[in-house]
């Protein structure tokens, strides 16, 4: 096993050359560390020879950085002589509609003017609402106290027609194992999964359940003294929810693709928990 710590740029570049990749400059190294934690980069450097996912991770990271670094600069004279493009501050109505949240029983819940999947600062606000007659759910990208990417599932009871009491919501943060089981359930490898024993103190016993009912999924979130928020979830909603879960899992395992995660969840957790 490669035991090099890759503490110096010289060690990193020597390894990149061994892997058939280009060397990087100090400025490029600084940009790469902004895009990926050093521990992940070091792990990928060590495993790239025998791990396709790790190699693909380096290929995505290194060439993209170099391409931006080596892009030709435009001279001031050329910039002044270049034709100015008019900015359209009033986009057509059709383009505006394409950026609006979907109507009906499903909609993406972003902050004001916040497209799905985008970040504001260091916080990822990707989320998705699922509405039911008696309750509603929100699936959101989140982080644990240790900074590990995960999912927060929140449920609120209906207090009127399409009105929900989010001030009394039940919130559950997925553990690492629950993320894998959720993917296995939502992609058909498991018939159901349950996350138990969340919460502390008087909230001990919070949890959630996802059940594959064939034509749709049934999801419920529960907590002591708060009852149950139960909502049917369509395959279309499940598609978006699964994509958000996979996005979070890939942040912690960037050398794996979404397809890799689905396959591993099916062949390990799905196969042995049935």
SSE topology:
Blueprint: H1 9-18, H2 26-35, H3 38-47, H4 52-69, H5 76-81, H6 93-98, E1 106-107, E2 119-120, E3 123-124, E4 127-131, E5 135-143, E6 149-160, E7 163-164, E8 170-173, H7 176-186, E9 192-198, E10 206-212, E11 217-223, E12 227-233, H8 235-252, H9 258-273
Helix pairs in contact: 2-4, 3-4, 7-8, 7-9
Overall description:
- The protein is an alpha+beta fold and 274 residues long.
- 38% of the residues lie in helices and 24% in strands.
- Strands 1, 4, 5, 6, 7 and 8 form a 6-stranded antiparallel beta sheet that branches. The protein has a 4-stranded antiparallel beta sheet with strand order 9-10-11-12.
- The longest helix has 18 residues, at 52-69.
- It is elongated.
Q: What is the SS-derived class?
A: alpha+beta
Shape: elongated
Strand content: 15-25%
Total strands: the figure is 12
H and E order? HHHHHHEEEEEEEEHEEEEHH
Please report the distance between the alpha carbons of the first and last residues: 35 Å
Overall radius of gyration: 23 Å
Features:
single chain, 274 residues, alpha+beta, Transcriptional Co-activator pc4, Chain A, 2 domains, 6-stranded antiparallel sheet, 4-stranded antiparallel sheet, plasmid
């Amino acid at each position: 096993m490669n035991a090099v710590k890759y503490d110096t740029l010289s060690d990193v570049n020597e390894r990149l050359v061994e892997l058939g990749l280009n060397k990087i400059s100090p400025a490029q190294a600084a940009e790469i560390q902004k895009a990926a934690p050093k521990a992940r980069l070091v792990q990928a450097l060590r495993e790239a020879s025998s791990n396709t996912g790790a190699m693909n991770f380096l290929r995505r990271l290194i060439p993209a950085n170099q391409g931006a670094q080596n892009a030709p600069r435009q001279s001031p004279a050329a910039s002044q002589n270049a034709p100015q493009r008019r900015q359209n501050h009033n986009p057509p109505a059709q383009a505006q509609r394409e950026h609006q949240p979907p109507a009906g029983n499903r909609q993406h819940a972003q902050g004001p003017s916040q497209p799905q999947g985008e970040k504001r600062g260091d916080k990822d606000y990707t989320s998705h609402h699922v509405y039911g007659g008696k309750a509603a759910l929100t699936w959101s990208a989140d982080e644990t106290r240790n900074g590990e990417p995960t999912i927060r599932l929140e449920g609120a009871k209906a207090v009127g027609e399409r009105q929900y009491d989010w001030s009394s919501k039940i919130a559950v943060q997925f553990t690492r194992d629950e993320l894998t089981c959720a993917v296995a359930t939502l992609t058909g490898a498991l018939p159901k999964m349950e996350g138990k024993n969340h919460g502390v103190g008087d909230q001990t016993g919070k949890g959630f359940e996802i059940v594959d009912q064939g034509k749709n999924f049934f999801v419920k979130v529960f907590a002591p003294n708060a009852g149950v928020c139960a909502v049917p979830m369509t395959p279309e909603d499940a598609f978006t929810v699964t994509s958000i879960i996979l996005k979070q899992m890939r942040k912690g395992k960037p050398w794996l693709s979404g397809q890799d995660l689905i396959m591993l969840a099916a062949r390990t957790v799905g196969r042995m928990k049935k």
